[in-house]
Amino acid sequence: MPPKHLADMTMQQRREAVAELGEPAFRAAQVSHHYFGRHITDPEQMTDLPASTREAITGALLPPLLTSVRADTCDDGATRKTVWRLHDGSLVESVLMGYPGRATVCVSSQAGCGMACPFCATGQAGLTRNMSTAEIVEQVVRAAHQSEQSGLGRLSHVVFMGMGEPLANYARVVDAVRRLITPAPDGLGLSARHITVSTVGLVPAIRRLTDEEMSVTLAVSLHAPDDELRDELVPINNRWKVAEVLDAAWDYAKRTGRRVSIEYAMIRDVNDQPWRADLLGRLLKGKLAHVNLIPLNPTPGSRWDASPKPVEREFVRRLREAGVSTTVRDTRGREIDGACGQLAAAERTGQPGGTKKTPHTDRGESRKVAS
Q1: What values do phi and psi take at 273, rounded to 5?
Q2: Which domains does the chain have, with CATH numbers?
Q3: Which listed residue (113, 117, 120, 340) is catalytic?
């Protein structure tokens, strides 16, 4: 595991770490304010610390966790994707996206992913390891700093839709969320309502998250309304079927009062048939749910492709006719291989971006489309 970082520690543990250096315990709160409140890690900018001990204090509380090995931008600078190398050489990605009045970061929770969804670049790469609480939080702090420095404004939203299955790294993801929603100096002070945690459908973990009562948004990556197809597209469905996943999601919505986001990648001639739209509509009708359709971002040589726009529009029309709130996700970062897993794979193989042949989906915001 990576070195211990203040984001892994309680405030009391931070004080003890500082005291072991012979420094007053209140130095821990000062460093925490710099990290969570100002989003800085450079000891030279922490002028309220004694110059003679800044390096030692920050070394104890802020060991380096992420090293940027590649950063690409597009959308006139509003989208920035970064590949990070972890202490053991593992590669992960995060994407910062600026929108009018908000800035969102999509973060990774694992290096790789063990869910093996065949249309997902990360899933095809396999799982390397879980990320630590601090490695997850550090992506958000770095994004907050980037957002402010690049003129995108204050970071307001966090989505756990990058590399990995968040609920397969349950304890560290929940700890990271608590760091994100706790006010400084203990955390970043973001709104729980602005944090989205996705899952492919790990039912016991969804029920654990329900009991946490943190009121984050739950996003379920469904991708098919019927078990026959979902068994193929989302292999974990062989263990927990569609009905079980949705039952757990509805319990989450009932307990928290939060609308569940149903993520659905639109794949040509695979899951985009009108009858599947009708079935999905029947499953969701009257529920506290919103469908987020995701246009597949195809890659050269892949057998998977995006649904044609007329098919997509008909899918939307049928869902809305059934009374289900539906939007289509904006595709951000196509020019920079903006979907999770692709840039990291290019770095591992030494290929240029855009040549990897594993299909993937974009991690953007939703947009409304005409029915």
Answers
A1: -70, 150
A2: 6-61 (1.10.150.530), 67-367 (3.20.20.70)
A3: 340
